[in-house]
Design brief:
Blueprint (H helix, E strand, L loop, with lengths): L8 H12 L6 H9 L5 H10 L2 H14 L18 H12 L4 H14 L4 H5 L11 H4 L7 H23 L18 H10 L4 E7 L3 H19 L2 H7 L2 H16 L5 E2 L4 E4 L4 E4 L5 E4 L6 E9 L3 E9 L19 E2 L1 E6 L8 E6 L20 E2 L8 E12 L4 E9 L9 E7 L12 H7 L8 H22 L4 E7 L18 E3 L7 E4 L24 H11 L5 H16 L20 H13 L4 H9 L30 E2 L2 H12 L15 E3 L7 E3 L26 H5 L18 H9 L1 H17 L10 H17 L5 H14 L1 H9 L2 H4 E2 L1
Antiparallel strand pairs: 1-15, 2-14, 3-6, 4-5, 5-14, 6-13, 7-12, 7-14, 8-11, 9-13, 10-12, 16-17, 18-21, 19-20
Helix pairs in contact: 1-2, 1-3, 3-19, 4-5, 6-16, 11-15, 13-15, 17-18, 17-19, 20-23, 22-23, 23-24, 23-26, 24-25, 24-26, 25-26
Length: 837
């Protein structure tokens, strides 16, 4: 057998463009490369493409496939993950910056602990949370149920498979119920890996994009934790003269800046939906009796102040309410949809501004109570069982010269019984902006005691409160942290999903049965790698992150023989359409043996010891004579190798779904190269019957700017994928996909011919071509000549070559009958466009 000849330059430039950046070259780029006589022209072209920001966009898509990333949970409750996209942007940035592979891996498993000063390392933990998540079992059912425990084991199983399949190329999940039947992976090894991830959940994790802000927040949170522990050392510090002087100054300032609030005594109070309202001696209104789904409470109260500048709404705890309230929902929560104030007798509401509260539920802040949108609301979960307050300034102070009444309307229209249980209203004439002063009763009681008669314990409690308040004030003025959906040990509780108390104990389950727990598993990894220890030794007080850090270091240890082979094999696969080991995620006995084992070893060591640069690895592969071969079989017409495992020629590879769509956008002239940010939702979204919304791709405006960016920035729905992309084998994110199905089906031909995206963009391509060739000389201005020029341009744009005379004659005749848009559809449906050779 003999190697095939080198491919011609037009073939090479199209191949390398789609391989490295996922876009076709322009006709001008093709002609420049073909005319370049420099012997190093191809190597220089490779370097330019590797330096392009488009490179990271192309190769991040391969990694997202392997991580089975999507932006919804999947399963029966396919809720949208609003904060999944930062992980995608992290991948693009990391690949463009050519981050060393060991760091790239470490960040995605334990970046928060190994690189705490780098905000990107926290975003990287989106890798562990990229797969599906069973919301109904992991959030909506009781913590103490067997189903909840089973769901946790299965959730960790997905994390383990994501990490070990993709980084070590071993099917470790096969050892969940018994020792692996084919590979030396024991059940004990598998549950040791379960123990590594036993202290994290998938949740919205906060981070600061600015590293200086991140460092400041971390210092403040560390200090807050020290104060909460009240160690002997901290107590001594709090009793120091300097700290006591700070407390005294705070107390003096507090007394001089206090806001006087005038409680209102309601005259009338009415529930629109049948709740029983009772006025208590302190002027608060308590709700009882029937708990309607929704309610609107109207309270009228006389005012005695002649000038009003602010209103305060207190929602108070009460023993008659669930969890002591202040809300009537089963968990003590409330949702105040809209809060309105009127001068009684007027239908024009008083304008309220500068809303702030002592606590805002995530995504349910107090500003939602005056945004004139009833579906939004102020909520206070999980800070239930205690009083809360909100203050609103009046945009224009109310001046009154005679007895006046105010009418307050509290709309609670969110539904599901999220009603206020006990409310009290106050007004003030303080100079705006009015500060919310709500001291806990024990602290207020201490402040009422003369300084010289306070006990040591009272002084300590007051000092602790002042120090904690100072920290909270500093935290409040920091920029609002961003969020990413990622593996997290600390996060804001959501429904029944709460941060774990620490690494959960993991038992080896006999036959994988939750009802048959055996020995407790120690955190660790695979014992079949004899050169490295398989179990991690930690102090019992060590945080869960130390386990992930140990695994990250184990995976990227130079002596680990799997990691380096796995990644070079993956890169090889995406350049040749098949890996040196065809089963990318299975190097075990059930996987295929390497076609070129010495080459695999050489590449692995060259990569590991050569700086772990993925760009350098690409350069080594694509500048090789093997990569540059022609796809023709002329050198070996009767080859005994029909699958081309010996690589005696290049493989013809069908473009994947993203390359097809992005190429169409580029050829049409509509491609928007704006990078990053929230994903583009190329569908109409409506509420569903339950959690999963209704999605309609046919109602999306194809000319919208949301449809112009590269396909990696599309919003990815697990259970409701884009039918056009799905037809072209784009994975939906429900399964780990190391390599895509590369099918050729009649459905693809029908989609490429009939899909609305293709049809509309062929019209755009035709319009672009008409514009491109509009400046013909007058001697060539005949209709037939114009059509020929347009067809020549279409072939150059879509097929990256010149048209033949036979094609010109045939396509000109076709265009005369059916128009240029249909000529473009014809070319885009051709094998020559759809395959890279």
């Amino acid at each position: 057998m003999h190697p095939a000849i080198e491919a011609d330059r037009r073939t090479l430039i199209r191949r390398i463009y789609f391989d490295l950046i996922g876009l076709p070259p322009t006709p001008e780029e093709v002609e420049t490369f073909v005319a370049d006589r420099d012997e190093k022209a191809f190597e220089q072209l490779v370097d330019r493409l590797l330096d392009s920001p488009r490179y990271g966009e192309r190769w991040a898509r391969h990694w997202l496939d392997a991580a089975h990333f999507a932006e919804t949970h999947g399963n029966d409750q396919d809720r949208i993950r609003e904060n999944a996209w930062p992980y995608r942007d992290y991948l693009v940035q990391s690949l463009n910056s050519d981050k060393p592979y060991d760091r790239f891996v470490q960040e995605q498993i334990a970046g928060d602990v190994l690189f705490p000063d780098d905000p990107q390392a926290t975003i990287a933990l989106g890798f562990l949370a990229a797969g599906p998540w069973d919301e109904s079992s992991l959030k909506d059912i009781r913590e103490d149920t067997l189903d909840r425990q089973i769901a946790r084991y299965l959730d960790r199983d997905d994390m383990i498979a994501t990490v070990i399949n993709n980084i070590s190329s071993l099917t470790v999940q096969c050892a969940r119920c018994h020792d692996h039947k084919f590979d030396p992976i024991s059940q004990a090894d598998y549950y040791s890996l379960q123990a590594v991830f036993s202290g994290v959940e998938r949740a919205n994790r906060t981070y600061d994009a600015d590293s200086a802000v991140a460092a400041r927040r971390r210092r403040l949170l560390t200090r807050r934790g020290q104060l909460q522990e009240k160690s002997a050392e901290i107590v001594v510090e709090l009793q120091s003269q300097a700290t006591q002087q700070t407390v005294a100054e705070w107390e003096r300032k507090l007394g001089s800046q206090g806001v006087v609030w005038k409680p209102l005594d309601p005259e009338t109070f009415v529930s629109s939906d049948g709740a029983l309202l009772t006025k208590l001696p302190d002027g608060s209104i308590l709700s009882g009796g029937t708990r309607p789904e929704m309610d609107t409470v109207t309270i009228v109260a006389p005012v005695t102040l002649t000038r009003m500048t602010a209103v305060k709404l207190e929602v108070l705890a009460d023993d008659s309410l669930p969890h002591r309230g202040p809300g009537r929902q089963d968990n003590g929560n409330l949702h105040l949809s809209e809060f309105e104030v009127f001068i009684d007798g007027s239908n024009a509401p008083v304008l309220l501004v500068n809303p702030h509260a002592d606590f805002d539920q995530q995504d349910w802040g107090i500003a939602r109570a005056i945004d004139k949108s009833e579906p939004t609301a102020w909520g206070i979960y999980p800070k239930v069982g205690q009083p809360h307050a909100a203050v609103f300034d009046l945009r224009e102070p109310i001046e009154v010269s005679q007895p006046t009444k105010l009418r307050f309307v509290l709309k609670q229209r969110h539904g599901r019984g999220h009603l206020i249980g006990r409310a009290r209203l106050m007004i003030s004439d303080a100079t705006p902006p009015v500060r919310l002063d709500l001291l806990p009763e024990p602290i207020a009681a201490i402040l009422a005691i003369p300084t010289d008669v306070r006990t040591e314990q009272q002084r300590l409690e007051l000092t602790l409160f002042q120090q904690m308040e100072a920290i909270e004030l500093e935290l409040s003025i920091l920029p609002k942290p961003s969020r990413v959906y990622a593996a997290a040990a600390n996060f804001e509780p959501e429904g029944g999903l709460n941060p774990p108390p620490g690494p959960r104990p993991i038992n080896i389950l006999h036959r994988g049965d939750i009802k048959q727990p055996r020995d407790v598993a120690l955190p660790g990894t695979l014992s079949c790698i004899s050169s490295l220890p398989s179990r991690f030794e930690f102090d019992s007080t060590a945080p869960e992150s130390t386990r992930r850090a140990a695994l990250a270091r184990w995976l990227t240890h130079p002596g680990n023989p799997l990691t380096w082979r796995s990644i070079v094999n993956r890169v090889w696969h995406h350049h040749f359409g098949r890996g040196l080991v065809a089963t990318l995620n299975d190097f075990g006995h059930m996987g295929e043996t390497p076609s070129h084992s010495e080459l695999l070893d050489w590449l692995a060591v060259e990569f590991r010891d050569g700086g772990q640069s993925l760009k350098r690895l690409h350069r080594i592969i694509v500048t090789s004579a093997t990569y540059r071969q022609s796809a023709t079989a002329e050198a070996n017409p009767a080859s005994p190798d029909p699958d081309n495992r010996t690589l005696s020629r290049a493989n013809r590879i069908r473009l994947d779904a993203e390359c097809v769509r992005d190429a169409v956008l580029q050829v049409s002239g509509r491609l928007d190269l704006r990078m990053g940010g929230p994903s583009d939702r190329q569908f109409d979204l409506q509420p569903g019957i339950h959690v999963t919304p209704k999605v309609d791709y046919t109602k999306f405006n194809l000319d919208s700017d949301l449809g112009r960016r590269r396909s990696i920035y599309r919003f990815l729905f697990r259970t409701l994928p884009d039918p056009f992309m799905e037809t072209l084998d784009c994975p939906s994110g429900d399964q780990i996909t190391p390599s895509r199905t590369n099918s050729v089906t009649v459905q693809q031909a029908l989609a490429l011919w009939n899909d609305a995206f293709m049809a509309r963009h062929c019209e755009h391509i035709a319009a672009r071509i008409e514009s491109d060739v509009a400046n013909l000389n007058s001697t060539d201005a005949g209709e037939n000549a114009k059509l020929r020029k347009q067809i020549e341009r279409a072939v150059e744009l879509i097929l990256c070559r010149h048209s033949t005379e036979a094609e010109l004659a045939s396509l000109t005749n076709y265009a005369t009958k059916h128009g240029m848009a249909n000529v473009c559809r014809l070319l885009l449906n051709s094998n020559e466009f759809l395959f890279v050779k």
